[in-house]
Recover the amino acids of this structure.
């Protein structure tokens, strides 16, 4: 599951958040490459949701004082 609610993210540990962060960054890179190769921007909503979830995870990590 790519998109998670903040309530679900808060229940994860720092290690879990780091794992989820690396998965999302990989997914974001794959989706951006798909758009670059095809020129079709039909997946913009998916990329926006991935970026939003990445930002939420980074915010939680900063709140907890964890290193990224």
């Amino acid at each position: 599951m790519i998109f998670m609610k903040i309530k679900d993210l808060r229940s994860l540990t720092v290690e879990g958040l780091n794992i989820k962060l690396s998965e999302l960054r990989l997914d974001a890179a794959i989706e951006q490459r798909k758009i670059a190769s095809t020129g079709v921007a039909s997946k913009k909503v998916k990329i926006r949701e991935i970026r939003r979830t990445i930002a939420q995870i980074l915010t939680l990590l900063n709140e907890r004082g964890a290193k990224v």
